[in-house]
Amino acid sequence: MIDNRPYTFNVALPGGIPNRFELHTRRTLKSMHGQYLDIEAYNDKLSKEDTLLYEVYELSRPEVAGELIHGISIVHPGLVGNEYFMTKGHFHTVLDTAEIYYVLQGNGKMVLETLQGDWAIEELTPGKMLYVPPKWAHRSVNTSLEHDLITLFAYPGNAGHDYGTIETQGFRKLILIENGEPVIVDNPRWQEPAQREVDL
Ligand code: PA5
Ligand code: NI
Which of 29, 54, 134, 171 is the most exposed place for a label (fewest CB within 10 A)? Predict the structure, then answer.
């Protein structure tokens, strides 16, 4: 049964692993099939090792509107070709649900876009709070080659994750390294979202 008493938990830095969590998800290279621009570099890296890219520690709550699912996301540093390690990224299944992120450690960017093709890139540096409004897909990118990008997140219990849309159409913008610096480039494989009949 769910514990409905108030609680606190600690997130010790560096490291960022909370001292309480119910779910620990580890995403490796093979779960990012089709997402990295340089397919050859992706296949080459995967043939050597199914590298750990990021981890999520979640404090689970009932998946209902009044609850907030929260936890810690840790994106490790690294490159696939010229592209930084990043999360899969997703829309929420219930599109009308928002999310907040607070950056605890590291440097990165949040890549965001809507089903209408609007896009945004927000800087992630320690102490920054990011608000992801309803209807915006979001992906965290670690632009450090040395340190983890550690964020705290919270979103409504009923939000759900729609990974399929991004797996199919990709994100419109990619974050690559150029002369040691992150640059924003157009994703040549991005597919314009199919117009939907419902009012999004
Ligand atoms: O719900 C969120 O947006 C985060 O908790 C993410 O799930 C987390 O950062 C991992 O990303 P993804 O779910 O896209 O694999
Ligand atoms: Ni989300």
Answer: 134
The CB of 171 under 6 Å from ligand 1? The reply is no
DSSP structure class, residue 44:
H
Which residue's C-alpha comes closest to atom 2 of ligand 1?
Answer: 153
Q: Which of 57, 85, 131, 140 to mutate to test the pocket of ligand 1 (most atoms within 8 A of CB)?
A: 140
Q: How does 9-32 read in b/e, with b if 16+ C-beta sit within 10 Å?
A: eebeeeebebeebeeeeebebeeb
pLDDT of residue 1: 64
- Ligand 1 near 136 CB (within 6 A): no
Residue 122 three-state SS:
strand
Tell me the HSE value of 45 on the side-chain side, using a 13 A CA sphere. Answer: 22
Q: pLDDT tens digit string along 151-165?
A: 999 999 999 999 999
Tokens 């992906």 label which residue?
Answer: 139
Across 112-119, average pLDDT:
96
Task: Name the residue with higher pLDDT: 81 or 192.
Answer: 81
Provide the pLDDT for residue 3. Answer: 77
Residue 110 CA: which ligand is closest? 1
